[in-house]
Amino acid sequence: MNCELSVQELAEYRTNGFVVRRSVFQRRELGALRSAADIAVATAQQLSRSVAAKQYLLDGHRFVDIGHVTVQFEHHEQARQIRVIEPVHHLHKEFEALVDDKRLVMPMRQLVRSDEVGLWTAKLNVKSAQCGSSFGWHQDAPYWVHDHDQVERLPNVMLNFDDSSTDNGCLHLIRGTHKLGMLPGCNDGRQLAGFYTDPKYFDESDQVAVEVPAGSLVFFDPLIVHGSPANTSNRPRRGIILTYQPAQRPTLKKGDVRNAGC
Fold first, then answer.
1. Has residue 192 got a pLDDT over 70?
2. pTM (2 decimals)?
C-alpha cells in the first residue's frame, strides 16, 4: 500500500494548512487504541497521586507533572477527569507502535521534508462526554519555538479514535492561517494568555469543523490556528496527536531520540 500523500493532497495541505484522510484505521485497530487510551488514563491518574507528582494551577486549572509527563485535568471546579496527557506514547505499546506506522510516517516524511523522521511529541486528548472542555484558538509553534530551531518542520497528525462532530468537540481549523507566520498572542491577564492567538489577527469565518468518522487522520501545519469547542454530547471524542521532526533530534519533554521507522 502506498501511504504517501498524493500531489493533490500535498497541494491541499500547502493551500489550506491541513489535509484529511477519512477512515484510514479499521474497527479492530480502533478498539485496541481506545483500550490503550483507557489504560493510559488510568495509569496517569495513579501516577498523579504518587509522591513524585508535582501539582500546580495555571489560570485556575490543575496540572500535574510526573517526571517528563504532564497531565492536564478538566477545567471544571475540582474536576477529576483527565483532559490531556503529554507525552503518551510510552504509556502503552499500541501508542508506541503507532509512532512507526507507515500510514503516519510516510506522509510525515513528505511534510517534514526529510528522508528520515523522528517523534517530537505525542499527546492524548481525552474529551469526555458532557464534560470535555474547549481548547481556545492557538498555534503550536509558539509553544515550541524556544525548544526547536525549525518549528515550521514540526507537522502534526491527529488520529481520531471516535466519530468526531461539532457536538462532541471536534477539531476546528482556520483555513490558510499557516501562511501568516507566528501570530501575536492574547494579552488579557491570563497566565497562559500569550499562548492563545489574538483573534483580531485572523478571520474566524474561515474556520473548518473537521467532522470525520473514527479512524480518520488529520495532517495539519504547526502554524495553523486551531482549537475545539466543548463536548456537549453523550459521546467521548478521544484522539492522539503525534508531531514529527527530522530524525536524530531530541523529543520535546524527555529529550531522548525516538526515530520513526516503517
1. yes
2. 0.97
